[in-house]
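Hey, I'm writing a tutorial for new members on how sequence and structure tokens pair up, and I'd like a real worked example in the thread rather than a made-up one. If someone can provide the structure for the chain below, I'll link this post from the tutorial.
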Amino acid sequence: MKNNHIKQSETILTGDRATGPLHLGHYVGSLKQRVELQSNHKQTILVADMQGLTDNANNPSIVSENILNVVADYLAVGIDPKLTTICLQSQLPALTELTMLYSNLVTIARLERNPTVKNEIHQKGFARSIPAGFLTYPISQAADITAFNATLIPVGDDQLPMIEQTNEIVRKINSLAKKRVLNECRPLLSKSSRLPSTDGKSKMSKSNGKPINLGSNEKEIRQAVRSMYTDPNHQSIDSPGRIAGNVVFTYLDTFHSDIAYVKQLKEHYQRGGLGDGYTKAILEECLQEFIRPIRKRRNELLRDKSFLIEVLKSGSKKSQIETKKVLLQVKDIFGLNILN
């Protein structure tokens, strides 16, 4: 499954739930890659507002108030709507119909075996009170992917079970059709390891309350860096420190441009004589420099919300045409185009 080979021209689908602004973990895990891919491939980014409601239906403003935040984040890091189609999930009715059709091909037992879903159910404490929409969101993701007949899906390794489940559905559809109608897809994993949260306890995410957002101001960045987990046994400047698990060095490895300098810092820290305050100051300067232009561009974009809405409208209109074609093919397989 872990196939990172990219062909000359791929059809790429990726996206994010609109449940909050995007953060450095998103940038490392996917956004940077999307910017690199957009010039040579057909790329669509889906703002997944419908999927965002699967665990936020009782507080839908969490989704509605973040749709434009997510679009602004995309554009601020360099995603170009002239090269990448950006669309809104709820504006593509074909996705909902495909989800319903595919749901007849997937059992509840199969959904409950999905390790990603099982893990998220546990994390969110749903137990048996899990919303039906949340349990079935792998089917919705399969609808998203196949509606664009995507061949390459940039994902984290925790999402590999979703790719597997999508391809199971694709094979069932093609078997019913007795020919290839839909493409199987492959995952494209990030070249970078998953960025940890500032406390080092988990990956950086919206839900753990400790992300460094792409729009963070200088004070927020400073506070985040100062609170970062280092080596709890590094009690004094003179004592040797551990690099493994030290979040500050993980971020320096990811964001600092001078690899040789970071290597020297690590060696100095490990033999003693280098304090956590010093390394945090270096990291803070690095992150302030990295985020500053993104924040500036993001703020400019959010002051012109009509432009962001037009980007979504244009991308969604284009995607409606594309996804409807696939829907009609799938409905034909089920014999549901009798009135067409």
